Amino acid sequence: CVTSQTEISTTVSQYACQRRTTTENNNKIFTEAFEVLAESYEFNEIEGPCLAFRRAGSVLKSLTFEVRSLGDTQDLPCLGEHTKELIEEILRYGRSFEVEKILSDERYQTLKLFTSVFGVGPKTAEKWYRRGLRSFSDVLTEPSIQLNRMQQTGFLHYEDISRAVSKAEARALGNIIDEAVHAITLDAVISLTGGFRRGKEFGHDVDFIVTTPELGRERSLLPDVTDRLEQQGILLYCDYQASTFDMSKLPCHRFEAMDHFAKCFLILRLEASKVEGGLNSTEEDSRGWRAVRVDLVSPPMDRYAFALLGWTGSRQFERDLRRFARLERRMLLDNHILYDKTKKEFLAATTEKDIFAHLGLEYIEPWQRNA
Length: 371
Ligand code: 8DG
Ligand code: MN
Ligand code: MN
What we know:
Protein name: DNA nucleotidylexotransferase
GO molecular function, one term: DNA nucleotidylexotransferase activity
Keywords: Magnesium, Metal-binding, Nucleotidyltransferase, Nucleus, Terminal addition, Transferase
Strand order of the largest sheet: 2-4-7-6-5
Family: Belongs to the DNA polymerase type-X family.
Bound molecules: 8-OXO-2'-deoxyguanosine-5'-triphosphate, manganese (II) ion
Cofactor: Mg(2+)
C-alpha cells in the first residue's frame, strides 16, 4: 500500500543541497549511530564507508517524519546494505550492538578523547595511541612529547572549549567583534556564519566573516582586529593565516579543504557580564569568564557571497553543493568562485541566491542547511 510517507520519500534527492534540513532531527537515534560508525571509519582512514554513513545520516536528518519501519526507508537515496542492517537492528532492539562494540573499544575511546583537544587531529592522536598513551595525564607526563602552542592552549582551556557555546554567548561575541572592526574602519562589514547562522542553539565555536568594501583593505583587517583584542586583554590565543588568495590561479581543479582567504582561529576571554543571562556553565563558576573558540575569515568583498556560502555549512551541505555542481552542471564551486567548465567562464555573484540560481537550484535558506 502506498502511504503518504512513501510519497514524501520518493521526492528525497541524493544531494543535500536539494533538501531542506532544519535543526529538528526526527531520527537522532539512527543518525547518532551512523556518526559513531563514520567516526570509527575516519579513525581507521577508511574513506568510502565513512562518507557513506555521513551521507545516509544526512538523508535521515532531512526527513519530516520518524522512521518506524524499514519500509519507511525503501525509496530513500544513499542507504546501503550496512545502513539498512543498522536501522533494522535499532528498530528491533532500540540499540545497535555494532555501535556499542565501537563505543567500548579502547582505540576508538582514546582517539575520540585525544582529538577532542584543540590542535590535536587524527594523525597526532594515532601517534600518541601507538606509543601506548591512553589518557591526558599519560600525554602530559610523557617526556618525549613536545606539544605545539596550539595543543598547549588546547589543554590549558580544555574544559571551557569543550563546553558548548550558547546563542547568547555568540551574540555577546558578535558585539565584541563588531565593536572591534568598526573601531578600525567605519565601513566594516560583519556577518555571523557557521552553525549559528543555520539557527543552531549551541556550537563548538562562533564563526564570523569580517571584511570591508574597499578591495585590498581586508588584507590588513584581521591583524588590526586581533591587535585590538589583545590590547583589550581578551585574546587568549591567535593563529593568524595571511591571505594566499590569487584570482589568477583559479579555477583550482584539485580538491582543497581550506580556502585562501585571510583567517584566524582564536580563543577569546568572554566576561559573564557581557552575556545576557550569563555564561553557559553547569556549576557555579567563580571566575566570571570563560574561554571561547572564535573563527574570523576575511575575503575580499567581491568574493563575499562565495565565502558566506562556504562558511555557513553544514559540511555535508557544502560537500553536496560541490558534488552537485561538478556532476550535474559541469561547474566548479569553492569558497572563492563558481566556474562553468563548458563555457570556460567564471560566474559572478553578489548574493548566495545568485549562486543557487547559477546552479539551477532552488534557494535553500541558511536554517535549512543543517544537512
Ligand atoms: P559548530 O561550530 O556549531 O560545531 O558547527 P559549524 O559552525 O558548522 O562548524 P565549523 O567547524 O565552525 O565550520 C563552519 C564552516 O566553515 C564549515 O562549513 C566548514 C567551513 N570552513 C571553510 N574553510 C574552513 C577552514 O579553513 N577551517 C574551518 N575550521 N572551517 C572551514 O570553508
Ligand atoms: Mn562553527
Ligand atoms: Mn569554525
